[in-house]
């Protein structure tokens, strides 16, 4: 009996990990916040804008990660598919963009955790995704309540209702892990 419920929980966890991976890879808007290279609406965009601006990762790697979201946006809006070579221009992520200070550290760290958790969740059970989403929620909520000094456009920080979907799927993995610990 326990093995059947364990298999069922593992199956739900795998499906939840896959849905979260698609949510991150297709760059479904979860929040809106100013980032280094404009306005970012998903954890992958925040991570990409930071890595492109700092030149830590080759642009070819960032193009591979950003292209599925660009295709999804084009299909959703009924526009022609963007060229792979111009995907960074599609997001306005170019080398010549001005570098600014990053005021939303929780959102940046949470985005790194969410993206890493989405990719690692495909190969195993990891808890980075829930930590990342909670950090993003904390950063956006803190900005909405307290605001940051020195930021001109405070009303640009916003959380979309899809954030509840992003929070639900990593929570299912966490619930499964807690139930396995309680059974032992």
UniProtKB/TrEMBL annotation:
Does the record carry Transmembrane helix as a key word?
A: yes
| Keyword Transmembrane part of the UniProt annotation | yes
Q: Which residues cross the membrane?
A: 102-122
**Which terms are listed as keywords in the entry?**
Membrane, Transmembrane, Transmembrane helix
Record-given protein name? PH domain-containing protein
**Species name:** Heracleum sosnowskyi
The top of its lineage is:
Eukaryota, Viridiplantae, Streptophyta, Embryophyta, Tracheophyta
């Amino acid at each position: 009996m326990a093995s059947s419920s364990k298999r069922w929980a593992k199956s739900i966890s795998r499906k939840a990990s896959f849905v979260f991976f698609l949510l991150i890879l297709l760059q479904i808007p979860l929040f809106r916040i100013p980032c280094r290279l404009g306005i970012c609406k998903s954890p992958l965009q925040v991570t990409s804008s930071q890595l492109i601006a700092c030149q830590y990762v080759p642009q070819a790697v960032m193009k591979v990660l950003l292209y599925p979201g660009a295709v999804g946006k084009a299909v959703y809006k009924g526009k022609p598919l963007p060229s792979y070579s111009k995907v960074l221009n599609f997001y306005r992520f170019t080398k010549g963009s001005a570098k600014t200070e990053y005021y939303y550290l929780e959102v940046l760290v949470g985005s790194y955790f969410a993206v890493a958790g989405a990719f690692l969740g495909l190969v195993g059970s990891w808890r980075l995704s829930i930590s990342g989403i909670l950090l993003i929620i904390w950063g956006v909520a803190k900005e909405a309540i307290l605001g940051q000094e020195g930021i001109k456009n405070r009303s640009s920080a916003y959380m979309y209702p899809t954030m509840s979907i992003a929070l639900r799927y990593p929570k299912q993995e966490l619930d499964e892990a807690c139930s396995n610990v309680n059974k032992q």
